[in-house]
Amino acid sequence: DTGVSQNPRHKITKRGQNVTFRCDPISEHNRLYWYRQTLGQGPEFLTYFQNEAQLEKSRLLSDRFSAERPKGSFSTLEIQRTEQGDSAMYLCASSIQGANTEAFFGQGTRLTVV
Amino acid sequence: AQTVTQSQPEMSVQEAETVTLSCTYDTSESDYYLFWYKQPPSRQMILVIRQEAYKQQNATENRFSVNFQKAAKSFSLKISDSQLGDAAMYFCAYMNSGYSTLTFGKGTMLLVSP
Q1: Are B102 and B85 in contact (CB under 8 A)?
Q2: Nearest to B107 by CA among B2, B4, B9
Q3: Contact A23/A74 with Cβ under 8 angstroms?
Q4: Residues of B with CB under 8 A from a CB of A
Q5: C-alpha A27 chain-centroid distance
Q6: pLDDT (tens digit, 9 = 90+) per residue, A9-40?
Q7: CA atoms lying within 13 Å on the CB side of residue A90
């Protein structure tokens, strides 16, 4: 499978727990994006990396959220002290650097905080 | 900030018929890109069609075409000869030139009946 891979596909956690999601982009893609999609809404941008550098973070990304891409390959998104409002689908996408290059999305990780 | 509005939460079409999904956006930029993405249930989002704002010619991809009205900031998607496999959530998205992050609308659910 050469597409964007996200793990786990589903995660149920108790409020207050920490969770970590992983995204493996398409191998030659140097840009990686995280989006959050809540029910009835379109995806909202969270953050993006070019290689290992985190170039942009949305105001949506509170202090409880942290993302890394240590070697410019896979990325992790951690949410600390989860809240019910964090329940959403977390989407990862990747692309090649350049103007108007297509972003390829993974299937997402659905987080439910109970 | 840019905004994308999809005013049709749901649309229905019969197989082989034509349907048009609406999208309007707001931006002060003159150079940007517009996209339509398709998100089937429980599957990843895929790019359907894209339009560069500097191009006057409307983009076409097989049965999918757009009506891009730059002055009106309107970007509708026409699906001809609808097929059952077209049933999905469709998102309109905007991207500034020189950037790589997407701003999405809330989506339109397309139902296709035999």
Answers
A1: no
A2: B9
A3: yes
A4: 4, 6, 33, 37, 42-47, 50, 52, 91, 93, 95, 97-98, 100-107
A5: 16
A6: 999 999 999 999 999 999 989 999 999 999 98
A7: 31
